[in-house]
Every structure is written in structure tokens, then in C-alpha cells.
Structure prediction request, 815 residues.
Amino acid sequence: GISASTAMADLRVLYGEKISDPFCSLLEVSGYKILLDCGWNEDFNPDFLKPLAKVAKDIDFVLITFPDIPHLGALPYAFANFGLDCPVYCTVPVWRMGRLFLEDAVMNYEEVGMTQFTIKHVREAIDRMKPLKFSQDVILESKKPEEDPLTVTPYAAGRIIGGCFWHINFDSGVIIYAVEFNHRTEQHLNRFVLEAFSRPTLLITDATCMSYPTERRQSLDSQLFQAIQATLSQGADVLIPVDAGGRVLELLLCLYRFWIQAKMDNHGYFIFSSRVAESIIEYAKSLAEWMSDSCRNDLNNTHRRPFQFGESLKVALNLAEIDRYQGPKLILATNESLIGGYSLKIWKKLLRAPPNLLIVPQRGQYGSPTQQFFFPHRPKYINLKIRKLLPTRLLPAQTKPTITPANKDTPEESTAEKSQENNNSGPSKPKPNLTGVKVEKEGGKMVKKRKRKKKAKFPLFSFKKEERKYDDYGEIIDPEDFKVPEEAMTPTPDMARVNKRFRGPNPNPNQDFTPMRGGAGGGPPGPKGPFMDVGRRARFGEFQGNERNFQQGERNFPPGERNFPKGERNFQQNEMFQGNPGGNATGAGFKSGLEGAKEPMTMLWDTQFIRVHCRILCLNYEGRSDGKAVKNTLSQVKPHNLIILRGSVKDKGALRKYMEDSQRCKVMVPQNGQMVHAISGSETQRAVIHPTLSAKLEFKSVDPNMRIAWMNALLQDGEEKKSEMRMLIPAPEARVRGHAALYLGNVKFAGLQRLLIEEGGLNANFHGNIMVCNNGQITIQKKVSKAKRSIRIEGGLSEDYYKVRKLLVSQYTVL
Prediction:
């Protein structure tokens, strides 16, 4: 009739071992399967999520720590494709800002063919989230009724508004999941409070910034303000790539205060450019209760909410709005890695001019341009990867994606299996002779004869003319496009309208306008048709034969507006220049390549080596704790078991050595896909205390959160069912034996010295590690060993000795 349970905790790192990986781990505690973060990198490669796809259907709960892409970027894709069906717990700001992070990523990359997930998938994933407040306990009910629930609580971790670490309380211990926390108090966020939780059973953390040096915040702000002021005074522009709704809030608040104090409105414009910029600022205004004490005090005293910037901050939802501001500009644009979004497009315009300045506040994704700028020796050329969208049928055969059926082996596997079968079943086939020597048997002897080489039929190298199927912009080269239809020989009213736009008004309205050769500029008239020569492609003009419109001089269309099938490139006539002052060929009849394409498109990476001429300044505004702060925090927490996730091999090894040497705890550093047994199982027995025994217990307080009592009891025998628990009853007085006194508590000598002087009226001084009372008549010494801690008091029997002993014992809880 004993109810026994084996409490274990296993952790499997799905991905997140390397410093470039996002966070995603599977924690199993007493039958529960909890997904710790569900991140993705900004490449959005579905192959990266294969480990998650294998376990997605078995997950009970998901815990999200931060709202950025490395912590929740894969949620929409997992819900839509992997069968993930469970609640997702996070804080209220993570719930709000996470949606904006994902929507900004979708809108930034959908123009280059990112079809992994859409806005619809984002909203479906966000609807599955259950927002919580800090210190709000949640009892996670298990799918199995015989298992006990877990209590999960989020606490503030700093760095990003709403960012948290998770406190998981179960029967046999406490698990804390804390990654990328910040130990510093910032302008809009308080520091994290991990030190309040001492001696957890298991602590899961990372070693991302162990070797990165950090500067004082005053020094960083001074360098930032001086560089911006000097650049704008020269008439140049400043670009700061930022994330969608995380660290950008700290930078906005910091730069706005500098902008107002230095009266920078006369020197330039302060612009925040993002597709979700307005929503970010509006959400930030409503989250004052999640911010630092200084922000809340300002709200209470001045009744002014944080992030009310007024007219000094210009919000630009697209690049056209930025171009309206003529003059020096300070631009904050997404994304932070310079691999997409408005920041990449703006930077391409600024990198050619040396006076312009690029300020990099965080490293961004591994391998990105911002990460390359953080190298100790900054390269003159950077490796820039640009996404391009091309029709799949236009790609060479070696670059087309191939799909291998699940029931077929890969070429490597099939070759290995065939060779193994040949070795196991009979003699193998003779190998081809590649030496040119043939061995024959003549008269009982083996004679070597050399083969005569065949003469080549073509002694010269063969040549095959390569014909290009598509141009530099991914459009099919169709010979029909170079032919002039007969109908185009006669001028039409539509042609006259277009020619009038390019050449100016006709001085004689009654005179018929004759189409000109050589393009929009003019040239001698001829019978070749409007704007065209023989063998030369038209770059602009209008043709009645296939109803194609081109804009004057415009060839660099965005990928999403140019690379689509021939049949979908038709516009409605007379819409070419209507309703678009910028001159882009976008009318009511225009269809996007992503929406109207009827053939599959493939996104390719184009690697370019670009020389950077503009100035670059790297400042660490990531908001992560450095190596020294991480060590100090872990030394105060003192976990029994420690698991280190993301980080370089060097950083993880340094943190592991420090914890094993100084704290003597069990440290585990798992690799991707590896399962580690974090907490070993132990068999426990549960019993119910009888009311008679409960009434006799005398509890004493050890600290505000703990009360303890001594109990003499017997486990009642009986033939109960296995599902029922046994009962503890009071032990007979004849069987009760006395026990040695237990002294519970931690006595500090500084407090004891003050007590002896104030209440005892004794002289107490320190001589090294020994406290001496009454000029050496009584000594108190603390001894610490691996097994126990003890305090030894020595002195002659006297009234002062017993007085010192009584005051010392009063500092303990005695059982």
C-alpha cells in the first residue's frame, strides 16, 4: 500500500548548442513534456526544424522567455505543419510584442518569396498563447490523471520588456530555466531577480556572452551621442539597425532624451522606420506597469506615459516616407542583422559615402554583416547574402530542389547497402581495369599485355554554344519579344499618349505623331515600330500585340513585382501612369508575383562581397549579462545541477570549470539531439498524517518561508489498496526515545558581536577568525568542514560564559 514515485528530469537539446543557434529544448519531468522556447533563425530554413518536427505532437506545454525570433520564431510554422497542439505560456508583453516581431519578419521577407508562414499563421499561433503576469502561479494539469501537476511561475529577466525566466516547482525539487538575462537596471527595465532563488535542484542557462567585454553604460552613451552629433553636423546620415520591438525600446528612449537635451531638431531628423513602427510605440505606451521603477514614478508624478515622443520622432512605415525628409537623418530601421528589411535597403544607399555612419548596437544573427563588424579585426569587405526569387523552371538542374521519397534511400545509403549486399552474397563482380595492362594466360604462364589506346575522334576540345534562357533579372528571353507586330507600324492614340509623355507635348495637335526609333529620346523615324531597333529589346513603350507595359528607364523592379509568369504580367491598358506619383508600374490591374504566380518559385541566396566605405561604430547594447556577472549570479544561486545550453566551446568550458571548482555542482553540457539525465530518480513514500498526530506537532519558524517540527510517529500497517496512501499515527510513549538537539539557522559573527556588546554588556573583538570576549577569557570560533558547520565556544566556567552561550543559542532555532 505504498504510493511510490520516481521523480526525474531529462533534458534534450533539439537545437541551440552552437552560438549561432536559436533556443529550443525539450524538458521531461515526471511524464510531462515541456518545450522550452521555440526559436528559429532569420534564414527561416525548414530543414533546421527537423528535430522539432519529430516531437511536436507529444508536447504538453510551451514556455516562451522572450518575444524575439530566436525564442518564438518557429511557433507559427510548428502549429501549421508539425501538428503542435498545446497551450503556450508567456507574459503579456511577450504576447503583444511577439506578434509584431513575427509580422515584421513576414512582411520583410515575403517580397523575396518567404512562404514558410503567413500573417494568418502568425495570428493563429498568437491566439494559442496564454499571457501571464510576473509571479503568477499556473498549475499545469497533465494529460495523465495519475500524475501530479506542476507549478510554473514567470519572473522578470530584463533585457526585453516582458522577458522572463521560468520557475518550475515539482514534487522532488525546483527547476529554473534562465537564459540571456540582464543583471543591470536600464532606463525602461529593472534588473532580474534570480538571486532570490537559492539552491535549486536544476538550473538551465547559457554561456552566450561569457567572453564578450562590456563597458559601463555611461561610456557607451557618451560614444553614441558624440558620434551622432558629429555626423549630423557634417550633413551626413546615421543608420542604426534594430529589432522590431525588443532592444529598440531602450535605444529609442535613450536617443530621444539626448535629442531633446541637445536640441538636435535643428541639425536633422530623428526617424524610426519599420512596417510595425506605429504599433510598437502604441503597445509600449500601454505597458508602463512592466517597466522600471523610474518609468512608473514618472507616470505617477507627471502623468506622462513613457514613449510619448511628440513631433521629434518621425515614424516611417516605408522608404518613401523617409525620402520626404530632406537633410541629415538619424534612422533606426529593422532588422538588426542587415539581412533583410528596410535596414538593408537603406544601408546599401549609405555604404558608398564615407561621411555616413553605421552604428551597430548588437551582433545579430551569426554570419550576418553586423556580426562580422564585431570582429576584433574589422574586414574591409563583408560577405553579404541577398535573397532572390526566381521561377524554378529557369534554374539550372543542379540548383533545383530535389525531393527524395521517404521510402527510397539516399544515394550514399543505397551505395553502401549495395556494396554490403555484394560482400555478403557470393563473389563480387570484377572491377574495371583502369591501368591499361591486360593479364592473359599463354602456355600455362601469366603474360601482361598492354592495351592499345583508342585514338580520340576529336583531337581538339569540343565547343558547345551556351544559349541563355533568361536575363539578369530572371525574365525569360523570348524571341517573340524582339519582333515588331504589323499592327504597331501604324500610330495609335495610346502610342501617342505614351510618346507625348516621353518627348513632351506635340507643338502641332493636328499633325499626326510619327513613332521614333532608338528609345524615348528620339532619333530618325523609321518603319521599325515605336521605341525599337532590330535585334534590340525594348526597355519602355507599349505594344498592342501582347498588352505589355514598361516604365521609362526602369529595370530594377523589386523581385516580387518582376519575376512572375508571362501570362500574369499583363496590366490593364491606360493604367500605367495613373494614381502613382512615383512612376512605378503598379495599378489596379497589377498582380503581385507571390499572389498571382501559377508556377513554383524558388528563393536563392546570392552571396556578394561588398567593400564598405562608410564609417562603422560597434557598441554593445545587447542587454545581456557578461561573464563576470554570470559567475557572480551562479555563485549566489548555488544550484545542485547545472545545464549549459548555447555558447562557444571555449565559453561553455570556462563556465563549467568555474562551477565545478568553486561550487562543486554537477555540470552538463549537452549537444544538439543529446538527452541528459539532469536529476536522478529516487523512490519516495507518501503518507497521510493522522489528525491526533497533527495536533501534537509544534512548528517553529526557521525563516519567513519555512516552518519545521519534530515528529515521533509510526506508519500504520494494513492491507490497503495500492492506490491509497498509508497513515502516520502517534508513536506509543514507551517507544519514544529522546533525540539530540538540532540547531537550525545561520549565525553571522557581525550580528553576534553587536548582540554581545549591546545586550550582554561584554567586550567582543576579532583576532583573525576568532571572536575574543572579556580580554581573552572566552573565545568563539566557527569551523567549516565538508560534512558540517559548527561553532566552538571555549572559556572558564563563569557567569559571563553562560551569558555568551545563552546569547549564541538564541540565534538558532532549536528542535
Notes: The mean pLDDT is 76. The CA atoms of residues 487 and 544 lie 7 Å apart. The radius of gyration is 37 Å. The first strand starts at residue 3 and ends at 6.
